[in-house]
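Risk register update: the risk of archive-format incompatibility is retired. Evidence:
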Amino acid sequence: MKRLVALMGQRARRDWLQVLLWAAGTALLAYASFVGVSDAYGTEQDRTSLLAAALANPVILLFRGLPSGAAEGAFMVFLIFPWLAMLAAFMSTFLAVRHTRGDEEAGRAELVAASPAARTLPFLATALHGLLANTLLAALTAAAFLAVGLDLEGSVLAGAATGAVGVTFLGVGLFSAQLLRTSRGANSAAVWTIVVTFVVSGIGNAVGTPSDDLTRMESSWMTWLSPFGWGENTRAFDENLWWPVLLCLGVGVVLAVVSGVLVSARDLGGSFVAERLGRAAASPVLSTPGGLVWRLTRGAVLGWTVGGLLTGMLSTSLASIVQEVGASNPAVEDILRQISGDGSVEQGTITTFFTMLGVLAACCAVQIVCRARQEEAHGTAEPLLAAPVGRVRWLADYLVIALIGIVLVVAAAIGGAALGLAGQDGDWALMRTVLVTGAGQVAAASVFLAVTALAFVLVPRATIALGWSLVLLGMMLGLFGPLFQFPEWLVHLSPIAVAPLVDGDDVDLRGLWWLVPATAVGVGTALAFMRRRELASAG
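Archived output:
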């Protein structure tokens, strides 16, 4: 027991700030969302109108929760719960992989295994640590709901459901860490599981059965394939069902138990999914440092590019549907106009999807810069820098590949938008909106690239946490700011919220005047400081 407590204490010391930021950030999002909803949709008539639009419009349901009535609390849960649960899911998977596969890669697990601690004791400490982290997140989220005056049972249930989804994905992270040999592979598998199940839940809600008064939706069978769907079906502040919380916890426990068995069945550093054998002869591409960076990151670029293609196809394929709904219900039109200015509803739909595209492109860039940090921390960058490759050249190669990744993601989305128009026999004049907003999101995503590069040079050990936190913050402000009536100055702190767009017949450059200089100054400063920076090992 003493050894278990000591291991949990070590994890708490390493993670206290990260866990606190994740939990407090989730609670703060819940609190700010309620304030925004109260201001924008203060009457039941306003909420009923938006729910009716949502039930008739798959675009809204794809990225929102499960409608459960027009009551203030239920309405807010409909708008924000999937994103609260997503934050809990990311926190849990990163925590699980960091203290299992990550410790094995860094050599810390081997040191613990050489002590009198049992083989599974570090794994058990990680599982309990993750459970406590999700308990804290759930408690703070429930407190945020209570702080705005919502009832006790619904608040506690909404917080518990958020934490329970996190526990499910804690199990996913522990399981993926046993299957795959690297922390990068385990994190990628866990993240794609989060993204896929999030989309499955949204599609399941979109094709469900609406109530006669258009304020509720019964989920389709697809929703029950996703932990996000389980959490949404608690219907907090309405029916207050607790058994989906038990389902989330049960699946998380089962995955953790299976992972614990796998820990005992494999060698330290081993995995159940074998690594692919390398080629007998190196490709000519690997003869240059830039070619090596491309080889290390091409899988990530491909994944985000596919996401961009799908986003572009949805933007134009669904634009005509939204146009029909907006013509009969101004609630949808009002929301989209808050994002797109004075353009048409179809332009607003494309702008909404391309705002999400900016997030995908930023994620691609941040992941590539974080890969540079991983190479440095793991010691694999040192042999390369011992050759005639300067530090500035080494970092510049990562930044160039990251910029190429941003362009490829946006280009795929533009191609997908064209395919969507061709399939629907749509209005090809919308391609002007596609091209302008796409180019604008390249500029916006490049700012995240520059800021993450600065973090890598100035505070290398915080690169991953800062890079992903800034993307999440930018996403929250850019996607939710207009909907929740956040102050304009706060929304405009997000690069994706001030990217150029088509405003009626004109092009509004908006924040381009600072996006491009900020990127240039950030990248230039990072490269200048990299010339004098020493290599920073893991720790």
